[in-house]
């Protein structure tokens, strides 16, 4: 690998990648917030459980397909989502003894690790 390619790879992997993840996470958080608020208002608590479950299943299938095709970018999106979850969770922590909020913050940390893993695996698949 030439020195220019190494610098470019370093810039993309450690500067632009995390920046993209943060931006995507923020946009994803805002979009989900708007979507759920709108759906809640439209359904007025009727059919929310069934509709929400079907929506989660479809979203999961779409994310699985995206991960299979673009694992590196899926990893970045996963990191961004984890940062959005972390941000939302930390703002809701009431006290040190608020166990539920702290579990959510720890889960966000786990998602960051998963995202980094997926990013690394996707990056390795591209270089093969």
Description of the structure:
Helix 1 packs across helix 3 and helix 3 packs antiparallel against helix 4. The protein contains 4 helices and no strands. The longest helix is centred in the first third of the chain and has 41 residues, at 3-43. It has helices spanning 3-43, 48-69, 71-92, 99-127. With 128 residues, it is mainly α. The chain is globular.
List keywords for this structure.
single chain; 128 residues; mainly alpha
Please write out the topology.
Elements lengths: L2 H41 L4 H22 L1 H22 L6 H29 L1
Overall radius of gyration: 18 Å
Number of strands: 0
The fraction of residues in strands falls at under 5%
Mean pLDDT over the residues: 80
Helices and strands, in N-to-C order? HHHH
> Which regions have little confidence, pLDDT < 50, spanning 5+ residues?
none
* Secondary-structure-derived class: mainly alpha
N- to C-terminal distance = 13 Å
Figure out the total of helices.
Answer: 4
Q: The biggest beta sheet, please?
A: none
- Helix share of residues? over 70%
What is the general shape? Answer: globular
């Amino acid at each position: 690998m030439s020195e220019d390619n190494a610098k470019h790879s370093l810039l993309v992997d450690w500067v632009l990648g995390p920046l993209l993840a943060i931006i995507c996470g923020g946009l994803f958080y805002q979009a989900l917030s708007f979507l759920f608020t709108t759906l809640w208002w439209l359904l007025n608590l009727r059919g929310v459980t069934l509709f929400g479950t079907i929506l989660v299943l479809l979203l999961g299938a779409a994310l699985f397909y995206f991960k299979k095709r673009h694992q590196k970018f899926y990893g970045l999106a996963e990191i961004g989502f984890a940062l959005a979850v972390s941000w939302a969770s930390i703002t809701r922590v009431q006290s040190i003894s608020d166990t539920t909020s702290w579990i959510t913050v720890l889960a966000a940390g786990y998602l960051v690790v998963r995202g980094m893993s997926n990013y690394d695996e996707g990056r390795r698949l591209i270089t093969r």
